């Protein structure tokens, strides 16, 4: 007999930085199999320090939805990084599957922080070479 479904609360002290990473940022899993949470989606936090940028990467077959908690970020994307958009606290971001992108923090004073939800239980991070874009 299976156990009944239950709500699970995961506090910040339980977040797992052992999830897939991209240089220039930190991801912390909150909803993930590694934390004993059985779910078909992944959830966590994403942060980029002031003046930093991530490496170019994509998330394979995963779609990503992010909510900007704090700060301002620029997101570059496309086959040559030719597209750019800026998001600020209160904005939602959708990143399609397989889309190469990079996050940039233009602030010299504050990090930007996102709440991130991915369409599979385990995050996929494919880091691309720095010279992928001109």
Task: Explain what the structure shows.
The protein is mostly beta strands and 134 residues long. 0% of the residues lie in helices and 38% in strands. The chain is built from no helices and ten strands. It has strands spanning 26-31, 42-48, 57-58, 64-70, 72-77, 83-88, 92-95, 101-104, 112-118, 126-127. The strands form three sheets. The protein has a five-stranded antiparallel beta sheet, with no helix packed on it. β5 and β6 (83-88) form a beta hairpin. It is globular, with a radius of gyration of 15 Å. The model has no long low-confidence stretch (mean pLDDT 94).
Summarize the structure.
With 134 residues, the chain is an all-beta fold. 0% of the residues lie in helices and 38% in strands.
* Amino-to-carboxy terminus distance: 57 Å
Percent of residues in helical segments? under 10%
Class by alpha and beta content: mainly beta
Rounded mean pLDDT score: 94
- Going across the major beta sheet, what is the strand order? 1-2-9-4-7
User: Low-confidence stretches at least 5 residues in length (pLDDT < 50)?
Assistant: none
Q: Treating each run of at least 4 consecutive H or I residues as one helix, how many helices? A: 0
Shape: globular
Quaternary state of this entry equals single chain
Give a count of the beta strands, DSSP E runs of length 2 or more: 10
| Helix/strand order, N-terminal first | EEEEEEEEEE
Strand portion, in percent?
35-45%
Radius of gyration: 15 Å
Largest sheet: 5 strands, antiparallel
């Amino acid at each position: 007999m299976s156990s009944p479904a239950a709500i699970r609360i995961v506090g910040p002290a339980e977040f797992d930085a052992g999830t897939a990473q991209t240089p220039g940022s930190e991801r912390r899993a909150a909803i993930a199999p590694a934390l004993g949470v059985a779910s078909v989606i992944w959830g966590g936090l994403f942060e980029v320090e002031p003046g930093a940028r991530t490496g170019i990467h994509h998330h394979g077959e995963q779609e990503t939805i992010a909510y900007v908690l704090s700060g301002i970020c620029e997101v570059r994307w496309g086959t040559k990084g030719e597209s750019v958009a800026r998001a600020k606290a209160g904005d939602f971001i959708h990143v399609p599957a397989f889309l190469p992108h990079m996050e940039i923090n233009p602030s010299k004073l504050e990090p930007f922080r996102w709440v991130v939800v991915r369409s599979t239980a385990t995050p996929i991070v494919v880091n691309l070479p720095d010279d992928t874009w001109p």
